[in-house]
Amino acid sequence: MITYLSDAEDNKIKAIYTLLEREIEDEQSFTLSEEHLEILDRERKLHINGKTKSYNKQDSLDIIKGLKTL
Prior knowledge:
Layout: H1 2-7, H2 10-28, H3 34-48, H4 57-65
């Protein structure tokens, strides 16, 4: 892909950029439903009150990879 981009004509680069730009804009316009917001609020309150545990990024990755258990 990098080789293609380095040799591509300007109009092709602009077209690729336009496609990617639209995709990025679509992702940024994502909104949560009222139900999802209520779930997040409930989970946040449980966490603040010490009733649920949180994990840092490395712990999360280790759990996903099976290197660590909950």
